[in-house]
Amino acid sequence: MFERRLWRNLDYPLLLAVLALMAFGIVIIGSATRSGDVSAASLSFVKRQILWDALGLVTIFIVLLFDYGFVVRLTNVLYAANLLGLLLVLVKGRTVLGGQRWIAMGPFQLQPSEIGKVLLIITLAAFLKRREGKLSRPRDLVPAFLYVAVPMVLILRQPDLGTSLVFVAILFGMLYMAGARGHHLAVVAGTGLTVVVAILVLHFQYAVDLPLVKHFFKDYMMKRLVVFVDPQIDPLNAGYHIIQSKIAVGSGGLIGKGLFGGTQNQLNFLPEQHTDFIFAVVGEELGFLGAIALLGLYFFIIFRGLQIMANAKDTHGVLLSAGVLSMLTFHVLVNVGMVAGIMPVTGIPLPFMSYGGSSLLANAAAVGVLLNVGMRRQKILF
User: 51-67 pLDDT, tens per residue?
Assistant: First the structure.
């Protein structure tokens, strides 16, 4: 039962920062989908995003109604539901841009892998809580890696490399806060990176056919990693996104070209400008100052989240907070890095800014979990 006095512990500055991001996102999506005219068609993206934002706020408050400790009893059910959703998309999913990731739900498209991120945080927190104090040796990490590997394999089958990497970021962040030693995690990460580089070299430089790799990684995904090093290798195809986004961000200067005034955006040179590359629109039209303001909002949210994690009343709350913060931080770093050309193109959206309902609802639920931990940070309230 929800107690009214819990509202005194709600982190209102964090909630207001999320609302500011939502409002900012609506404005930029309006610019990114305008294309020179203000018509009913161009405003349809804005209207749908406003609807998703409203549903996101409802999601946050629904999550706040339940004590986060309650979900421990539902861990197995939620984990099974996560796997079922990921399996369903492989059977009945809709293929868009080479990925079978969406399930049609009337007029809307749901992406189960987005919801799966939050379900992973919730279930992995309970999983690691049961292993508290038992993660000091490398072999102790194996069960956690296997626990996350199952849904990750299903996501790679879609294929969706970006979301798979988010799962890895969540796993490492939560393992570290659960007591795993940093150097053990560093060795695992270094080994994984070495394997990926070796695969790229063998596949592209020496033309070695690797059936297992081809089963999970499409050629376009591999090319994205290669053109990250030099986009001019394929400037009109795989390298096009990076080249155009760097032009957009670089041309914005200090104060930008003005809202609705970005040439790369308005003339449609910038691809996926309302989804994955929306930060490039901010950089072009609002310039360095606008980009810094946006990043400042993200920094504030992460800072408040760290405070919530530090003041959590139990290990479970710490782990939930760590999972949410790992997810949000990874999304921001990779998306902004991708737009700036310092990270490969992976299709990871910018939280609360990129157009899309599944991502918005998943991020809203994650923020709801974070606020939930903060509200219940005291064991006894007077």
Answer: 999 999 999 999 999 88
End-to-end CA distance of the chain: 17
CB neighbourhood size of 2 (10 A): 11
Reported as a pLDDT band with limits 50, 70 and 90, residue 13 is very high
Q: Give the integer Cα–Cα distance in Å for 191 and 144.
A: 17
E strand or H helix that includes residue 317: helix 315-340
- What are the CA-CA distances from residue 136 to residues 132, 142, 309, 340 (Å)? 10, 12, 22, 38
The DSSP code sequence of 251-290 is HTTTT-S-TT--HHHHTT-STTTTTTTHHHHHHHHHHHHH
DSSP string for 349-366: PPTTTSS-HHHHHHHHHH
CB-based burial label for 260 (10 Å; 0-12, 13-18, 19+): middle
| HSE of 216, CA atoms in CB hemisphere, 13 A | 13
Kindly report, residue by residue over 350-366, the tens digit of the pLDDT. Answer: 999 999 889 999 999 99
Calpha distance 6→331 (Å, rounded): 30
pTM: 0.90
Q: Which of 329, 270, 267, 256 is nearest to 298 (CA)?
A: 329
Sequence-separated (6 or more) residues with CB below 8 Å from residue 380? none
- H/E stretch holding 26 reads helix 12-32
Average pLDDT score over the chain = 85
- Would you kindly state where each structural domain of the chain is located, as residue ranges? 4-375
Q: Which residue has the tokens 């990684």?
A: 217
Residue in this structure with the two tokens 């209102």, named with its chain if needed: 12
Q: Tell me the pLDDT tens digit for each residue of 163-178.
A: 899 999 999 999 999 9
